[in-house]
Write a structure and sequence with these properties.
Layout: E1 9-11, E2 18-20, E3 31-36, H1 40-44, E4 52-58, E5 63-70, E6 76-83, E7 96-104, H2 128-141, H3 161-170, H4 192-197, E8 201-208, E9 211-213
Antiparallel strand pairs: 1-2, 3-4, 3-7, 4-5, 5-6, 7-8, 8-9
Helix pairs in contact: 2-3
Length: 214
């Protein structure tokens, strides 16, 4: 069990309280999914229970890469790498109700992404740490590109939050698709909820109303 008294504080403006996560357990390539009292995402997709996602890109200091959509100034912003406490979706957010910290699940031998004409067994084998680093580097390559809710799973020049996390893995690791294929909503888009329901992810930590769950 995680002891909240032994964990560092990650500040958030949400109700002027802190999200406490065991910092020594964080890994580059993990990702965060959150929900709020209200959000632009919920207005566009009211059936979705989760509203935002971001990729952890650095530990000391803690940084994330997020595509935030509409920020506090009403501007739309694509992928940006920011300190956690300065992030629109977490550190500066208000009305946060729940945050899930997720880890990617790698099945069997991990192989790099390669052109379709190269058989899987001939693709280079990489370590989990390398797979995580490649996912983050892919996300960094998209910094400054536009935000769009019309982007599909095949888009690579416009982004929303969960698409960026999804593509960061699907474009760097063979067979690493962070979505739920059993869900009828699986199709052209990838939502934050898909990242949670994916068989390629697991929830490591949940923060909810200041309570702690592992």
């Amino acid at each position: 069990m995680i002891n909240p008294e032994e964990t560092p504080l990650f500040p958030t403006d949400s109700e002027k309280i802190n999200i406490e996560i065991p910092k020594n357990e964080l890994k580059v390539g993990d990702f965060l999914v959150s929900r709020y009292v209200s959000s632009a995402w919920a207005r566009y997709l009211p059936w979705e229970e989760w509203h935002h996602a971001a990729l952890i890109s650095q530990i000391e200091p803690l940084k994330i890469i997020e595509a935030v959509g509409e920020n506090a100034a009403g501007q739309f912003s694509g992928p940006a790498e920011v300190d956690f406490q300065d992030s629109v979706g977490f550190g500066l957010a208000t009305g946060i109700r729940e945050v899930k910290w997720l880890r990617p699940i790698f099945s069997g031998t991990i192989r790099e992404m390669a052109p379709s004409n190269i058989p899987r067994k001939k693709r280079q084998v990489i370590t989990e740490d390398e797979a995580r680093k490649r996912a983050v580097e892919y996300a960094r390559q998209q910094l400054g590109e536009p935000y769009s809710l019309l982007a599909t799973k095949w888009s690579e020049d416009k982004w929303y939050c969960s698409l960026l996390v999804y593509k960061s893995y699907s474009r760097t690791v063979t067979g690493m698709y962070l979505e739920d294929y059993d869900d009828l909503r699986a199709g052209f888009f990838v939502t934050p909820e898909d990242l949670i329901d994916s068989p390629r992810s697991k929830v490591y930590f949940t923060w909810k109303y200041g309570s702690y769950h592992v």
